[in-house]
Amino acid sequence: QTLAELELETAQNSEFCLNLCLGYTARDEMTHAVRCMSEGVAAGKLRVTDITEALFEECLYTGELPPVDLLVRTSGVVRLSDYMMWQANFAALQFVKVFW
Questions:
Q1: Global pTM?
Q2: In whole angstroms, what is the distance from residue 18 CA to residue 33 CA?
Q3: Where is 36: in which H helix or E strand?
Q4: pLDDT tens string 27-38
Q5: Which end of the chain is less packed: N or C, by CB atoms within 10 Å?
């Protein structure tokens, strides 16, 4: 309910984009993207030479979202733990001790 309320309260905001990764792993996301491209090749919609970093990024769950500028990891753990491994390549990382 809290997430739904937050979404309603911020629906008109357009300056920032907030991603909450719940029940998510980058390995699953990347596997999904590769499978999506493979299915396109098998169906004849794509050639192997069409597969690029840009296409891979489009096939990620975050494909339509802007690049990640800041990734905040809560709980005091100083590691990404399989979160947004592709998207975080140029992001600023912040590790905080607070557990949300």
A1: 0.76
A2: 21
A3: helix 26-42
A4: 999 999 999 999
A5: N
